[in-house]
Amino acid sequence: MSVAVKICGLDRADSVDAAVQNGAAYVGFVFYPPSPRNLSPEAAAPLIARVPENVSRVGLFVDPTDDLINAVLALSSLDLVQLHGSETPARVTEIKQLTNLSIMKVIKLAGPEDLASAAAYYDVADRLLFDAKAPADMKNALPGGNALAFDWELLRDADIPLPWMLAGGLDAENLAEAVSISGASELDVSSGVESAPGIKDLKLIKDFLSAAKG
Q: Is the CATH code 3.90.640.90 the one for domain 4-213?
């Protein structure tokens, strides 16, 4: 079964082109300064402009201010806003009203209690993304993109009323197992297609997208 893929953390024209040309359904751009994949609104604009209309353009934000969101949208058109921080359901609603865009809220998982927390967002988000929760003792952990996986069994047969993506420690070698166990129909990858943090590898992008079609 083919699964849809989001290649996230793109920051160069060649990696954007590689994702698009090899069949990514979504491409993601990070607006979070601590991340090695961070882009300014000005740097992101020409990259986002390269993306054809049949590929969804996703802006990743972490507890963003209205000013940051407005600065990005003043220069670029996005299709989806990904919220990867500790945004409350009320804040998700505010951002949805501010942008008039679909919202994908990230839920970070380590155990069943984390999955239960997703219910608070069912009525305010349009989509969910399940990523690994970083351990409390992990140094320099980012909100996402830490190359960590969680127990995919947490999602097996889960009753989730919204479309959702699976993220966290995915690569071309383990994506088939991840899909088989979790039941995911959409995958998000960033560190799994990098040669170093923030450095996308064009071959790894191609290999991941090829494996997702298999």
A: no
